[in-house]
Specification:
The protein is built from eight helices and eleven strands. It has 205 residues and is of the alpha/beta class.
Length: 205
């Protein structure tokens, strides 16, 4: 029986649900409903029920969802019920901020190593990391078994960096460089370009 294909837009909403659920637990809540969750997130209750039904049944009609159970199930679906080591390439403003950011650890991700090509940065300390030379990307990442990486380099070198990461065994890339990357079909790329989101908002001004 072929594996069920889940629309990417549905997968993209799961982390949003997962972000809200621990906050509810902090409020001493134990049960929620698709209606309440939808009101918090600006997503319709029907959409939430439809999204979750793609993966099974997590609640009962009339009683709602156990927040703790639903959060754990979504973590398993997203495979963040474990910790994924991540490499960061580019120690500019964005890369440095990511290296210092403490919010990944409780969300299934951990920065494990950082790289740069600038001789003035190589072997220096950035947060708790020693900056590695980008020439060692393939060897270092392959040896560590890292499958997740972030590119925060200038656009003109991002494609070359992506190819090195793929050769090292990376299967998931978060790209901050303002360029579309060409990678094999089995490698997933997500793009973050703040300018695009700002331009989208200015349309409504």
């Amino acid at each position: 029986m072929p594996e069920k294909i889940i629309p990417d837009i549905v997968v993209g909403r799961l982390p949003i649900y997962l972000r809200a659920l621990p906050r509810m637990l902090e409020e001493k809540r134990r049960v929620t409903s698709s209606q309440e969750l939808g009101e918090r997130l600006g997503i319709s209750a029907a959409q939430i029920r439809k999204d979750l039904s793609q993966f099974g049944e997590f609640g009962k009609q009339g009683t709602g969802y156990s927040i703790d159970y639903l959060a754990e199930q979504i973590r398993q679906i997203l495979h963040v019920d474990r910790v994924w080591d991540m490499a960061v390439v580019g120690v500019g403003d964005i890369g440095s901020a990511v290296a210092r950011y403490q919010g990944f650890s409780h969300r299934g991700l951990r920065v494990a190593m950082i790289f740069d090509s600038d001789p003035a940065k190589i072997a220096t300390q950035e947060s708790s990391f020693t900056v590695k030379d980008t020439k060692t990307i393939k060897e270092s990442i392959h040896e560590a078994g890292i499958q997740v990486a972030m590119i925060a380099t200038p656009s003109q070198v991002a494609q070359e960096v992506a190819e090195e990461l793929v050769s090292a065994g990376v299967k998931a890339i978060l790209n901050y460089a303002p360029i579309n990357l060409t990678v094999p079909e089995n490698v997933r790329v997500q793009y973050i370009d703040p300018a695009i989101h700002l331009q989208r908002m200015t349309y409504y001004l």
